Amino acid sequence: MSLSPFNRVLIVGIGLIGSSLALALRKAGLARQIVALDHTPDHVAEALSLGLVDAAGDDPALADGADLVILCVPVGACGKVAAKLAPYLAPGVILTDVGSVKQAVVRDVAPVLPEGVQFIPGHPISGTEYSGPSAGFAELFEGRHCILTPTETADPAAVARLQAAWEAMGSLVTIMSAEHHDRVLAITSHLPHLIAYTIVGTATDLEEHMQQEVIKYSAGGFRDFTRIAASDPIMWRDVFLNNREAVLEMLGRLHEDLGLLARAIRIGDGATLEEKFTTTRAIRRGIIAAKQA
Ligand SMILES: NC(=O)c1ccc[n+]([C@@H]2O[C@H](COP(=O)([O-])OP(=O)(O)OC[C@H]3O[C@@H](n4cnc5c(N)ncnc54)[C@H](O)[C@@H]3O)[C@@H](O)[C@H]2O)c1
Ligand SMILES: O=C(O)C(=O)C[C@]1(C(=O)O)C=C[C@@H](O)C=C1
């Protein structure tokens, strides 16, 4: 669809994702004016000095006149932030978010919004282990998936406009239910982060001389885990607290599978190990092939 720019976009939380959105929206010509609300004074100052936005502060009145509002705060903060903005949201405004969990955001945000606000939850499946306004870059969403989870009551025209905006920033948009999103992301994103946090924690909890060796030899697999385990602690605290059920379900399955592998190692069942590792190698190669296609 042809897309007219938004008049005033409010980005709430000008960290990694918020600043990347400010840059990507500008690059794609999607906003006449971009303003940011953030409760960290240093981030407000940084966003202004980097020229990411036209105005910034910690005043919910920044939402006045906005036709697109994007919540880019940790998922546990979305409800409180939406409640503060509510008095300034005009009917017809599109309010979306980028949170890594969707059902909890819908639960917390939907009830506090005034009638007429078009609430369309979203989640770009792209990020890094860095945080804050200086971590953002305009290309973050290019060639990456973005999931939207509108409810049945959402205005199809508003959903189409938001979808077109993400596509103009280079994303591949999929629409699904919030519940399905949370189960899929529990296994593809949340569990891998939990494993990374655990393995890095376990390794650094070893005896002193072993810790030195962990640092010295962390060139291969372990190093990849340390990158993921460097991700923002508040963001990930909120992800796990707000996608409890799905994460615990996937963790249960992981425990079962680990148990089977532990048994195969204990009884010297090489065939089981080889079969498992052959299957997972094929999965990795399939992912790479799909990316290149
Ligand atoms: N980092 C990723 O890889 C990634 C990817 C996709 C989606 N997300 C989601 O994007 C959201 C933001 O993540 P990020 O990586 O940009 O985090 P970030 O820490 O880089 O930025 C968050 C910003 O929100 C501000 N903030 C926090 N609470 C606030 C509040 N109550 N009021 C006003 N400002 C507040 C912080 O000061 C900070 O500037 C999260 O919901 C996260 O789940 C993150
Ligand atoms: O690339 C990374 O560093 C990420 O962890 C990005 C990642 C992911 O798990 O894929 C992390 C959280 C988001 O909600 C979406 C994307």
Automatic annotation (TrEMBL):
GO BP annotation list: tyrosine biosynthetic process
PROSITE patterns xref list: PDH_ADH
Native source species: Elstera litoralis
Keywords carried by this UniProt record: Amino-acid biosynthesis, Aromatic amino acid biosynthesis, NAD, Oxidoreductase, Tyrosine biosynthesis
Domain Prephenate/arogenate dehydrogenase: 7-293
Molecular function as annotated in GO: NAD+ binding; prephenate dehydrogenase (NAD+) activity; prephenate dehydrogenase (NADP+) activity
Keyword Cytoplasm carried by entry: no
Leading EC class: oxidoreductase
Record-linked Pfam families: PDH_C (PF20463), PDH_N (PF02153)
Gene3D superfamilies cross-referenced by the UniProt entry: 6-phosphogluconate dehydrogenase C-terminal like domain, NAD(P)-binding Rossmann-like Domain
Protein name: prephenate dehydrogenase
Family: Belongs to the prephenate/arogenate dehydrogenase family.
SUPFAM superfamilies linked to this entry: 6-phosphogluconate dehydrogenase C-terminal domain-like, NAD(P)-binding Rossmann-fold domains
